[in-house]
Amino acid sequence: MKIVLPGGTGQVGTVLNRALTAAGHEVAVLTRQPTRRGEVAWDGKTLGPWAEAIDGSDVVVNLAGRSVSCRYTADNLRAMMDSRVHSARVVGEAIAAADRPPRVWLQMSTATIYAHRFDAPNDEKTGVIGGAEPTVPGYWSYSVDIAKAWEREQEQAETPHTRKVALRSAMVMSPDRGGVFDILLWLARLGLGGPVAGGAQYVSWIHDRDFVRAVEFLVERDDVVGPVNLAAPAPLPQRAFMRALRSAWGVPVGLPATKWMAELGAFALRSDTELLLKSRRVVPGRLLEAGFAFDHPRWPDAADDLVRRMRSGRAQPRDPQRLPPRQ
Ligand SMILES: NC(=O)c1ccc[n+]([C@@H]2O[C@H](COP(=O)([O-])OP(=O)(O)OC[C@H]3O[C@@H](n4cnc5c(N)ncnc54)[C@H](OP(=O)(O)O)[C@@H]3O)[C@@H](O)[C@H]2O)c1
Questions:
Q1: Residue 316: pLDDT band by 50, 70, 90 thresholds?
Q2: Is domain 2-322 classified as CATH 3.40.50.720?
């Protein structure tokens, strides 16, 4: 198949591109700074010659968006919102204008769209959309607003010949340098992999190979339309999540961190504590219902596999210059 990955130069794009290319597909990446074969220039907001890459393609997986791992300043929040809304809108316009539109458009969204909660898991049918939780900082609602606006752009796009699926993905765990797993492991190796603010908040995650398999599954399943959760079926409290990570690497201790220590750490890493403190209890209702079987449903096994691959150095980044260096 011919597959187009707008925003495919980042962590998730690297994982997908590597797997889809290895499976024999022709992959084109839309990027603001093309440097490699297979990369096509676009600006993420206006139609241009890049739209020819979409015309005649089979599948589009739009991953574009300013990284959310940053300080939540007014400028950064606006860039997080605009980069997602504008890129989803213009991808929709390109598909609508195509003579031979792709048969499916998978649009990245996020598991962060669901409410911060501990009592029950969020699936697509019964899950609670976030933004109105009384017990969390008010500014957390902005991430939910971004996710809603992002999905709305895809929903509203008039692409009658193209099936639309929104990927409400949890953190994609891959052994690539600079990815979220690498950063968490780095913290654990420094002895900082303990519970944060008590560690009761749930962590949702998905193993990179299951992420790729789920994308392939959704490409094939013509009956699946709309939002789909991409998360392993067993989210777990942050305390247990980090314990399993420490055990996979062989780190004996992880210092606990209070909320204010997390604030300091997030400040030092130029990130935001929402990423650490929000309880993301998200489960893959629709994937399981459709018959998808996870290869790595449990975190301890997934963490062991990721550590093994990291140690054997098999998952080097496709382009080391594209990802931030290991800290
Ligand atoms: N990583 C995860 O675990 C995870 C989980 C759930 C959802 N997501 C979402 O999935 C998407 C991909 O994740 P990722 O980790 O691969 O992100 P990433 O590493 O930050 O890559 C995203 C890509 O988006 C492009 N981009 C950034 N700012 C842009 C802008 N203003 N306009 C157009 N394009 C822009 C960049 O490509 P160029 O610089 O080459 O143009 C970048 O490579 C993101 O939207 C993210 O929020 C990620």
A1: low
A2: yes
